[in-house]
Amino acid sequence: xxxxxxxxxxxxxRAVFGKLLWLVIASLFAVNGIVAASVKGIxxxxxxxxxxALVLGRGLPLKDPNGGPTHPEGAKDNFLKLMGNLKNDxxxxxxxxxxxxxxxxxxxxxxxxxxxxxxRYIGTHRLGYRxxxxxxxxxxxxxxxxxxVDNGMMPFAPHYNNTHVRYNDPVGLKxxxxxxxxxxxxxxxxxxxxxxxxxxxxxxxxGQFEDAAESWANQAVAxxxxxxxxxxxxxxxxxxxxxxxxxxxxxxxxxxxxxxxGRVNESTVVTNLFPGAPVGFWGAKSPDNRKVKFTWRNFLxxxxxxxxxxxxxxxxxxxxxx
Length: 322
Fold this sequence. Notes:
The protein is an alpha/beta fold. It has helices at residues 2-31, 71-82, 99-105, 115-124, 145-150, 214-231, 237-246, and strands at 52-55, 95-98, 129-133, 154-158, 177-181, 196-198, 279-285, 292-297, 307-310, 316-320. The strands form three sheets. Strands 2-1-3-4-5-6 form a six-stranded parallel beta sheet. Strands 7-8 form a two-stranded antiparallel sheet.
């Protein structure tokens, strides 16, 4: 009789322990975002891929005035073609969505929802987007890009337009990667905020030429960024951005207003990432001219420790993580 009671007690203990173990495992999954919170339009138990890109704008059934695809639709198609996934199949690699379509899928009103709100939603619910593109003139100067990087997405956009002019942008390199257009040199706009230049491969024009229009060049850089992330699972988005720079054709000579860091060569071997300087760096004098207020966005590589501001003599006047 005692043996039977002991056996029943042991069985109950194992059952209780088993339930507790599953609760602990479920809790760990939830903490790590594997069990998602309720998201409108998206399965609450889905594991979201981190190989997703987004283009800001609207596509089909809307068309360009000339009857062709809208600019955003064209950018989406370019990215998918560059990634070898024209059917946008998540089982075959990187996918790409338009912001208009994604907002509708999430139950948002695309006509009233701001991009900042969309970016925060993507970050909060860990939807897996790591690249966001915009292909309108001077797109890199938009104020909402800070919300994109804060929520895990690296932005790519035209530096200015398809004219060989200097775009006066005193803030310099900012949250978005500003992309010019060119093949061996930068053909189009240049200035303080130019980071890289590029062009679509000849295959996009039937082997005739590399299309360097700034509207399309940023997708070429974004695709290289995606492949860098694929090849370096340890990278965060800032690591991959620094890798892009160090693989640039002008990195050894140094950044310039005319060419930025150059055109990214994917065959360049990058073994050690240098620390990236803050972006969006800006200084303004106080009304009494006695102080200077500095603002910036930290370049948050995975080994980032702090931002340091020092005088020319090496004296540190500021050092902090935030």
